[in-house]
Fold:
Amino acid sequence: MTLPARSYLFVPGNRPERFDKALSSGADAVIVDLEDAVAPDDKGQARAALAGWLSAAHPVVVRINAAGTRWFDDDLKLCAHPGVAAVMLPKTERVEDVAAVVRALDTVAQPAGNGGGERTVLALIESAAGFANALALAHAPRVARIAFGTIDFQLDLGMDGGHEELLWFRSQLVLASRLAQLAAPIDGVTAAIDDPVAIEHDTALARRIGFGGKLCIHPRQVGAVNRGFAPSDGQLAWARHIVAAAGAAGGAAVAVGGEMVDRPVLLRAQAILREHAARGGASERTEDR
Structure:
């Protein structure tokens, strides 16, 4: 069972001394950022540094500069490198821009030993136009997941606040991902680096809404995100109880703790146990289900 990444850790493209450290952070995926983290005058230097480090032995995601910028074409050339597992396309708004990235990825064959999988695109929704086209973008060929760039999105729409104000938009991206049969979307960053309560709260909220991962801006956030998207001890105990009771009933309807166990409840319990096993079977959270 292959599970989608929970934590995506950004590392600035102009800080090559941090690349290997990011790989050892425990993040499920590393995103080398050529966009927001790199000043305009440093774009070429960052691209060159990344090109010299990329290797099929440690594939990473690369966040390129947006379509229409003067760096887009050169970034696409770099993304043909076999060390690029996926491309994060910022400010994704048009299916045509996704298609341009896919063409660039296909200019070089994937290396032997990668399992034969195609390199994919992570569509980062950061604007009203991108949000309006979210369903079409989710259905675009080779889009693996949608990510929500919450800070830029709020800027584009002139929104204040955060959690309550973005709830409807987040839910719509979850819906679009499900309709396109994609993995659950990736939530935006938590700006607070040294506030474990904030990252835990934001991760828990994202999981409840239906997100399956989160963008991280510092290695200290990775552990909380991974734990937050793993089954809790309470969920595991509940799931084991449900599966055992259903098995003992031999397919008949059964009530467990005052809750009727029908097929959807059993399927949920089985999914929790499969995820736990696929992630290594370690207990990671103590929250209730």
